[in-house]
């Protein structure tokens, strides 16, 4: 597990052991997959640097091979959002698991894997729009950035990064929705309210960060509207949760 899963549990035991027991019920799907890789045990900061360096390195390598330097800013913005989403997941997981929160809440947040479902829906919706929703969308977004004919390795990386972004958007949405539900369903003590308040602020900050993608969607008003509308909706839901807490 990443370093954020370490430390001491509230009963004084080794929190690494606690994490192993609850890995598939109190962890994001992303954390469960990473934690299942044999021998992988690195600090959060190292994992995030490796993620960014790997994807950005591939972006630059393909740009050099195919002469796609015009696509680098958009690709880098997407890689930044995906990496920030990973940071959010690790940070929220650590904060929420260590807080004295109702078991029902943490199980719904982590154990339901709804964030994965939301990510899949967002990704399939994006791909559907690119392929069938608007005949002009594919040459506008992919053809304009990657040229024609489309280089298969560049398309593969583009779709992979898009999935990364969509999955983390699903995480942000689920964190926001469950925060609002938490504000309605549970009474928390002052210390715990401070923990969830910090977590909610981070969800809002991650949502706002996604606006860096908007300048690269100016040729597709529908996608621009979808991203901006999504960010506004997340901020409204998180704000409503904070007002009720």
Description:
This protein has 245 residues and is mainly alpha-helical. It has one domain (3-244). It is built from ten helices and no strands. Helix 4 (72-98) runs parallel beside helix 8 and helix 9 (190-209) packs antiparallel against helix 10 (221-244). The model is unreliable at 1-22 (pLDDT under 50).
Quick synopsis:
The chain is an all-alpha fold and 245 residues long. The chain has helices at residues 15-22, 29-36, 44-66, 72-98, 103-111, 114-133, 137-146, 152-185, 190-209, 221-244. Keywords: Membrane, Transmembrane, Transmembrane helix.
Helix segment tally: 10
Estimate nothing, just give the exact number of structural domains. Answer: 1
Tell me the radius of gyration.
19 Å
Summing up helix and strand content along with how strands pair, one would put the structural category as mainly alpha
Share of helix, binned = over 70%
Strand content: under 5%
**Mean pLDDT metric:** 82
In total, the number of strands is 0
Distance between the termini: 31 Å
Biggest sheet record: none
Order of helices and strands: HHHHHHHHHH
Pick out the low-confidence regions.
1-22
**Global outline:** globular
Keyword list:
245 residues, mainly alpha, 0% strand, globular, disordered N terminus, transmembrane helix, membrane, transmembrane, DUF7530
């Amino acid at each position: 597990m990443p370093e954020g899963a370490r430390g001491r549990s509230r009963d004084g035991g080794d929190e690494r052991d606690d994490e192993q027991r609850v890995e598939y019920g109190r962890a994001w799907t992303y954390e469960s997959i990473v934690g299942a890789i044999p021998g992988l045990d690195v600090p959060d900061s190292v994992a995030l640097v490796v993620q960014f360096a790997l994807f950005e390195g591939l972006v630059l390598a393909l740009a050099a091979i195919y002469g796609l330097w015009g696509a680098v800013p958009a690709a880098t913005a997407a890689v930044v959002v995906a990496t920030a989403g990973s940071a959010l997941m690790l940070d929220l997981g650590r904060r929420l698991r260590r807080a004295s929160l109702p078991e029902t809440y943490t199980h719904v947040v982590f154990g339901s894997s709804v964030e994965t479902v939301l990510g899949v829906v967002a990704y399939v919706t994006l791909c559907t729009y690119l392929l069938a929703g608007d005949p002009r969308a594919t040459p506008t977004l992919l053809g304009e950035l990657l040229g024609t004919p489309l280089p298969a390795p560049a398309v593969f990386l583009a779709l992979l990064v898009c999935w990364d972004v969509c999955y983390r958007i699903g995480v942000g949405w689920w964190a926001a929705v469950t925060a609002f539900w938490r504000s309605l369903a549970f009474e928390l003590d002052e210390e715990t309210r401070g923990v969830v308040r910090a977590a909610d602020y981070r969800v809002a900050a991650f949502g706002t960060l996604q606006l860096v993608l908007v300048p690269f969607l100016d040729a597709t008003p529908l996608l621009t509207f979808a991203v901006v509308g999504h960010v506004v909706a997340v901020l409204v839901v998180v704000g409503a949760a904070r007002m009720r807490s």
